[in-house]
Specification:
Helix 4 packs across helix 5. Helices cover 72% and strands 5% of the residues. The protein has a two-stranded antiparallel ribbon with strand order 1-2. It is mostly helical and 155 residues long.
Length: 155
């Protein structure tokens, strides 16, 4: 156990007794002017604010990058679909042109059957087409609609 004189000597050297231990209190900290304490506090606050701002800027940059990715890939998807639609439209146009050529050839074949002496009903029975399609194919100067030879109709 420490004697009172030793305790007093340690306290004179800037040491204080607290909860069974000695700790040192610097004289500079005790004698710091209010202005210096305020400046130290402001520096700490500024440092914390700068860290928070840096994290906020990083977050905003990450959000900006993610949004740019969303917009870029959305626009690329739309462009890919537009290009595909254009190709599909061209393929359909080519298909319709070829189909019309084949429909005209089918109408020519129906006319050839009629020229060979087959009746409209016989041609319809042989081709399994409705009679009105055979009649339209045989009519002079009448063009059948493009879907007429492909669409099943009742006679």
């Amino acid at each position: 156990m420490m004697r009172f004189g030793e305790l007093r000597a340690m306290m004179n050297r800037g040491m204080h007794w607290l909860s069974g231990r000695f700790f040192v209190v610097t004289v500079a900290a005790m004698k710091q002017p209010k202005k210096a304490i305020r400046l130290t506090a402001l520096k700490r606050a500024h440092s914390i604010r700068a860290e928070r701002l840096a994290r906020a800027i990083e977050r905003e940059q990450a959000i900006e990058t993610a949004l740019a990715g969303v917009f870029e890939h959305h626009d690329r998807a739309e462009a890919a679909l537009a290009a595909a639609r254009q190709r599909a439209d061209q393929i359909l146009a080519d298909g319709n042109t070829q189909a019309e050529q084949h429909r005209e050839a089918a109408r020519d074949s129906i006319r050839a059957l009629h020229a060979l002496g087959e009746t409209r009903a016989a041609i319809a029975d042989l081709t399994r087409l409705p009679v009105h399609i055979v009649r339209n194919a045989l009519a002079d100067n009448v063009q059948a609609p493009p879907t007429q030879l492909n669409t099943p109709h009742c006679a």
